[in-house]
Design brief:
Elements lengths: L5 H34 L9 E5 L2 E4 H10 L14 H21 L8 H14 L1 H5 L5 H10 L4 H22 L7 H12 L12 H31 L2 E3 L7 H11 L1
Antiparallel strand pairs: 1-2, 1-3
Helix pairs in contact: 2-3, 4-7, 7-9, 8-9
């Protein structure tokens, strides 16, 4: 006869065993690399696990790919450079949200090819880095992908996943939110326009206003669901295995746990 708490304990033990297997597999892979590189040249580098989110392994290649894809995000002129820890934190957040969507059996709207293509067209035309590198032409876009280590399939997958997550977040948090016109104009003049180099054509406000409103709505939504995401992190089991990828928050939490 088992007690009512036994299934939960069994599941927790299973999760710990699975995490141990993942970590052990990563260490074994590292040992194999060392053994191989000791007897051959040039050295062979294998992928490895850098973090685990509720038994879902995140690889070093995932972090590398996230850093490459960050070029598709609009940045202000004074934004800090991309870093591996920041890229890892974005992956962790997205993983937690996707797991929550699955757990809630939420009905996210799967974007059609037309929706993804429309977002891609907008990105190629309006993203400042794309304007600088002439992404609006097919030749310019192919050069952009090659120069930044991306593929068309990966960009499409990135946009599709981003649209799906935004759809879920907005459905859950966006109701009742609105953006005043003066906020749209302030973002256009103070944030967007300075990103274009001297002599480059700047799109008119009325053309980019919908995208600016979306960005500002996302900021409000982010503020609203920040505590929700924090609760997901606390309720979940997030472990960063590579000390080089720990954020300051991870380090402080680890220090507090050891006291």
């Amino acid at each position: 006869m088992t007690s009512s708490g036994t299934p939960q304990l069994a599941f927790k033990t299973y999760a710990q065993d699975l995490r141990g297997f993942i970590v052990g597999l990563a260490l074994t892979g590292s040992a194999l690399v060392q053994a191989q590189t000791a007897s051959s040249s040039p050295p062979v580098v294998l992928d490895h696990v850098v973090a685990v989110v509720n038994t879902r392994a995140i690889l070093a290649s995932d972090v590398h790919e996230e850093m490459l894809l960050s070029v598709l995000e609009p940045r202000s002129v004074d934004s800090v450079a991309e870093t591996p820890p920041a890229a890892l934190q974005r992956i962790i957040s997205r993983t937690l949200i996707r797991q929550q969507i699955r757990d809630e059996d939420a009905r996210t709207i799967v974007p059609t090819k037309e929706v993804v293509q429309a977002r891609l067209t907008e990105l190629r035309k309006l993203l400042p880095v794309c304007v600088r590198e002439n992404c609006s032409t097919d030749a310019g876009w192919r050069a952009f992908l090659e120069n930044h280590g991306l593929t068309q399939a990966r960009v499409d997958s990135y946009l599709r996943g981003r649209i799906e997550i935004l759809s879920f977040i907005e459905e859950r948090f966006k109701q009742g939110l609105s953006i005043p016109q003066q906020d749209v104009e302030a973002y256009y003049h103070n944030t967007l326009v300075p990103q274009y180099q001297s002599g480059q054509p700047v799109p008119p406000l009325e053309e980019v206003a919908p995208r600016i409103e979306e960005i500002l709505l996302q900021r409000q939504v982010n503020a609203m669901f920040s505590s929700w995401l924090d609760s997901l992190r606390k309720q979940g089991d997030v472990e960063v295995l590579d000390p080089a990828l720990e954020s300051p928050e991870d380090s402080s939490q680890a220090g507090a746990a050891s006291q």
